[in-house]
From TrEMBL:
The lineage of its organism: Bacteria, Pseudomonadati, Pseudomonadota, Gammaproteobacteria, Celerinatantimonadaceae. Transmembrane segments: none annotated. The record marks 15, 22 as: Transition state stabilizer. This is 2-C-methyl-D-erythritol 4-phosphate cytidylyltransferase. Pfam families: IspD (PF01128). It catalyses: 2-C-methyl-D-erythritol 4-phosphate + CTP + H(+) = 4-CDP-2-C-methyl-D-erythritol + diphosphate.
Length: 225
């Protein structure tokens, strides 16, 4: 079994609203993208890391990871799913692929290994966490309509792990059917394939808003100490 990683890094970070896309913001002197990618480069069973970049990207080539022999790049697309599809085109159908957001620099090797173990058994899986707050359903009025039973609710995270040929076909079919694909699993669910939720760490956060930066900084400093 050959394992590969796909890192969608072609977003512009609208919600972060920084001078560069958020994946290039430094945390303790190193770009967020470098943390997200190095975890896979350090994993001997991962043969290749394909990174999808924005067509106007002029930051990636300045990173040390850009010179790594396991790293290749592609031009991403307008939506995250387009970027993932562009990267999957570089891999063979028989590969097993782990898709991981460029903006999740706090993933731990322990959580990554949970997915690799399931992949060896041929199981599609994603990292996820049970929601912890009481969940409210509200309409445009801003008034609560009802409380959602949270016992069945999970936060979907990455990596998300699938056979490459299957994932490519299912993502293409979902896009053609106008399904709103927000993560790989959503397309798999739509196509009727089983996907396992693997309990991961709450601190595998996606850096999204400015207030996430000091959190990521704290978590990374603690991990590398
Ligand atoms: N992504 C991508 N191609 C896109 C859109 C997003 O490769 N067309 C990537 C982002 O770079 C990020 C991941 O998908 O690593 C998750 O997306 P998100 O957190 O939404 O990042 P952005 O789209 O950059 O942020 P925003 O939605 O705030 O603009
Ligand atoms: Mg986005």
């Amino acid at each position: 079994q050959r394992f590969s990683a796909v890192i969608p890094a072609a977003g512009i970070g609208q919600r972060m609203a920084a001078d560069s896309p958020k994946q290039y913001l430094p945390i303790n002197g190193k770009a967020i993208l470098s943390y997200s990618v190095e975890l896979f480069l350090d994993e001997p069973s991962i043969a290749q890391v394909v990174i999808a970049l924005h067509p106007d990207d002029h930051w990636f080539n300045q990173l040390a990871i850009s010179k790594h022999p396991k790293v290749t790049t592609v031009i991403g697309g307008a939506e995250r799913v387009d970027s993932v599809l562009a990267a999957l085109a570089q891999l063979s159908d028989d590969d097993w692929v782990l898709v991981h957001d460029a903006a999740r620099p706090c993933l731990t090797p322990t959580d990554l290994h949970k997915l690799l173990t399931l992949a060896q058994k041929g199981e599609s899986a994603i990292l996820a966490c049970p929601v912890r707050d009481t969940m409210k359903w509200a309409g445009a009025t801003g008034l609560i309509e009802h409380t959602v039973d949270r016992r069945a609710l999970w936060h979907a995270m990455t990596p998300q792990s699938f056979n490459c040929g299957l994932l490519r076909q299912v993502l293409k079919d979902a896009v053609n059917a106008n399904v709103h694909v927000t993560d790989e699993a959503s397309a798999m669910e739509w196509a009727g394939f089983a996907v396992r939720l693997v309990r991961g760490r709450y601190d595998n956060l996606k850096v999204t808003h400015p207030e996430d930066l000091p959190l990521a900084e704290f978590l990374i400093a603690r991990q590398t100490r």
